[in-house]
Amino acid sequence: MPPLTVTQPHLPPLEEFIPYLEAIWDRRVLTNGGPMHQQLEAALCAYLGVPHISLFANGTAALLTAVQALELSGEVITTPFSFVAGAHALLWNGLTPVFADIDPETLNLDPARIEAAVTERTTGIMPVHCYGNPCDLAAIERIARARGLRVLYDAAHAFGVTVPDGSVLTAGDLSVLSFHATKVFNTFEGGAIVSHDAATKQRIDQLKNFGIVDETTVDAAGLNGKMSEVNAAFGLVQLQHIDAAIARRAQIDAHYRALLAEVPGITCVPPSGQTRSNHSYFPILVGSEYPVSRNALYTALKGQDILSRRYFHPLISHFPMYRALPSAAPRNLPVATRVAEQVLCLPIHTGMCDADVERVVTIVREGAACAAHS
Ligand SMILES: *Cc1c(COP(=O)(O)O)cnc(C)c1O
Q1: Are residues 214 and 91 in the same domain?
Q2: Would you say residue 374 has pLDDT above 70?
Q3: Relative to the CA of 157, which ligand 1 atom is closest?
């Protein structure tokens, strides 16, 4: 039996992809905003319920460009409990990330801690909808309005997530998606920026193409962030299967929650106000009442060929390029520091059957029984 991994890319039948490849071969348009690229932008706007979207070669290039498009300077407040690409995008743009602590329930930036971290150098906030659970959108908007700050959501985990007002991706000034192979919706590698108006989309589209305005004008140091026709075509195929994939993930999520509800010391991270989840991750917290440590449980699962992941340990603020920042000190980040020691993401993907879920839960339960037997 192959190991059970935390995620596994969802691949549609290969035959469905072939006609798209044939169309690309016929047209000989390989990149630079070709027909597949245009079709995928339109299809994603319709599916996600967002006004404008700009496709990228990956989520990190989209983040880099989003920061550039918002013309941020000085300090940007962000979470340490996320994937390192977010803070890297700030550093690449010559900005100082300022880490603020997270809320112990949602594991997203705590608005009170954002407010406390604002200085006269702050120009923006970059929150993350961690595991696809929406941030406190209203509180963040209030702070941003009151302080004149821009808001860039790292929505890499939030594909298809909705809140009572509609897509979570329309909150803030810009939202960035990742379509990496490990994400719920993937184009092998890929990403996107969601924007509110045509002028901003046009600016982003220039910035992802070297800052080229027209044949003789370049007005910014833009990067090459363009998505190729092959990746866009794959996205079009993938989009036809996304609802079924998310529905299967929802079943696995519900199965885990039911089976883990009574296990002492294990907390399943609850949803945070969304009307539709994408079930992209299944994080649990291994609390102090659980007889063994998170790391011991991680190792026990690995011993049975179940490869869970400690997302997000270590914290971003722990890495050498961030560690010396005053805001990176663990005493500034007590909740994130504790959660990083307790969190474990269990396998959740469309390649899993119900017996796989039960196999994982059995090992988690055996861990809980350790104390009783010792
Ligand atoms: C995956 C991810 C990214 C980076 O996206 P890539 O497409 O891999 O470059 C950024 N932020 C978060 C939170 C992510 O999970």
Answers
A1: yes
A2: no
A3: 15
Query: 154 exposed, middle or buried (CB, 10 Å; 0-12, 13-18, 19+)?
Result: buried
Q: Give per-residue pLDDT as tens, 2-53.
A: 899 999 988 999 999 999 999 999 999 999 999 999 999 999 999 999 999 9
Last residue of a domain, one of 192, 213, 239: 239
Side-chain half-sphere CA neighbours of 366 within 13 A: 12
Task: Identify whether residues 53 and 147 lie together within a single domain.
Answer: yes
The closest residue, in CA terms, to atom 5 on ligand 1 is 59
Please check the confidence at residue 351 and state whether its pLDDT lies above 70.
yes
pTM comes to: 0.97
Q: Is the pLDDT of residue 373 over 70?
A: no
Do 316 and 362 fall within a single domain? yes
Q: What is the pLDDT of residues 291-333, one digit of tens each?
A: 999 999 999 999 999 999 999 999 999 999 999 999 999 999 9
The structural domain count of the chain equals: 2
In this prediction, residues 140-150 reach a mean pLDDT of 98
**Same structural domain, 211 and 327:** no
Are 96 and 74 contacting, i.e. CB atoms less than 8 angstroms apart? yes
Burial per residue of 265-283, b for 16 or more beta-carbon CB atoms within 10 angstroms, e otherwise: bbbbbebbebeebbbbbbb
| CA gap 316, 66 in Å, rounded | 20
* pLDDT given at position 370: 74
Q: Which domain holds residue 295?
A: 243-372
Of 55, 60, 187, which is best to mutate to test ligand 1, by the most ligand atoms within 8 angstroms of its C-beta?
60
Tokens of 149: 């700050």
Substitution site in 6, 78, 82, 83 for ligand 1 pocket (most atoms within 8 Å of beta carbon)? 83
Gap between the Cα atoms of 174 and 231, Å rounded: 23
